[in-house]
Amino acid sequence: MTYDQPTAADSSFPDPAELQSAIERTEVEPNFTVADAATALQADAARFAAYGDIEDFAIKSLDSEEAEELANAMAPIRNAIADELRARELFVGVEIIDHLVFEALKEPNGTSVVQRVIEALDNARVGEAGLLVFAVHSLGLTADDLRTLLDRSGVDLIEPDWGIAITSQTNSLERTIDFLERVRTAFGVKGSVRRESIEHWRRSRPTSWLERNPLLVVRVAEASGTYYGNEAMLLTRLQAATALVSMLAALQHAVGDFDRATLSTYVLNNRQTLDIHHYVVLSPGRAFGEGLDGDCVPLSRGRPDLVAMSELRLDLSPDYWRQHKQEADRVARAVGAVYRAYLRDGFDPTSDSEAAGSNRRRFEALVYFQRSFSGQTWRDTITLATAFELLLHDPSKGKTSKRIRNAIKRLSGQGDSAAEAFGRVYRVRNEIVHGGAQITTFDIDRARRAFVSTFLGHAEDEGLL
Q1: Residues paired with residue 222 on neighbouring β-strands, in sequence order
Q2: Would you place residue 13 in the very low, low, confident or very high pLDDT band (cuts 50, 70, 90)?
Q3: Which of 51, 52, 158, 301 could cross-link with 57 by S-S, CB 3.0 to 4.6 Å?
Q4: Cα 64 off chain centre by
Q5: Is the whole-model pTM more than 0.85?
Q6: Domain 354-461 CATH class label
Q7: Confidence band of 301 (pLDDT split at 50, 70, 90)
Q8: Burial 427-444 (b: 16+ CB within 10 A, else e)
Q9: For residue 450, is pLDDT > 50?
């Protein structure tokens, strides 16, 4: 199956009839589909009359066998709807789906449960895109001359085709709001950014990062009834975006003999903070009426992942990638394909299918690659070696290094050169892990480029594109 296709956030709500059919034919158990489960519950709608609303039902399901039985019967319907929406990059909190399923069962009107849920979500503009705003640190955007760097004209990257935008630290809330409005327009997101909300969050929360840090903005289509209802899904979107940025940084021209580029926002007017405790979601699915509003969400159970994702110790040249758009698009398509395959089959940790395992390993390879940009040699070496292993090595087979080298020769398009770059990384990884010290010298930038070229070949070889 190929996953090289436009994201759901690029367009409106998917065709309701096609979406309904895909959900209803999902098997709850052999020869018993979601449509069958919903029909059986609708035929016994009187059983739901005892419960005032979904909250009353949820509380009573804790100590009532009747309510618990109904909840267990509803769960497969809810899960099938959530899974199919997620696979299409429509992130809807399960609390919303639970409410809609319950109402459809409690008050049947001759329409199928799944159809009523889909109609409600469509009417609520869930298919319309919004923005996820995330602070990063240690990132620098480069320019070819000091004048451009000083006035910051063009020192950002806004790519509607990828659904990703990056700006350097603005050092001004006014410029931050202006940037978000430009991104909104470029991404085709309806409704203006509410200045009052941004200013309120800046005043009432520790959000100095809105001005002091580089910002990563990604396009999402989502709706949540709680702060954290969609957190896990939003984290995967952020992780795919940071992995793409890291790959582009690995491929672009070298900055010379220096550790960091000299004409970079990292070294000019940089007051970046590590005091990052929130991210911002701006979504039609969280707004009343026709506007665009959202939440400033405190970091919760995903905090360790968010902290790791926020560390992008790299320099990225917007001009370079505007001039090499075709190469960048190829990387973006490959990352997007792996991300969508993971959402379709791999995101659910209870799925033990072969496809789910393969998709998880590919996506985790992206995670470890991005984390190889910490600036700590020992950590970067180990995480980069792990990324190669996750991408290319079957854990049930031995001869790890040899198998990976052979795969790199076949997939990278660079032959022995890329394989040798990996070999030196893996040798240093073993020295650090087993001996506690690095002995062999190696070029980690070369090894990162070898990973990216191999990743591209792997995505194509596996039929994801």
Answers
A1: 91
A2: confident
A3: 51
A4: 39
A5: yes
A6: mainly alpha
A7: low
A8: bbbebbeeeeeeeeebeb
A9: yes
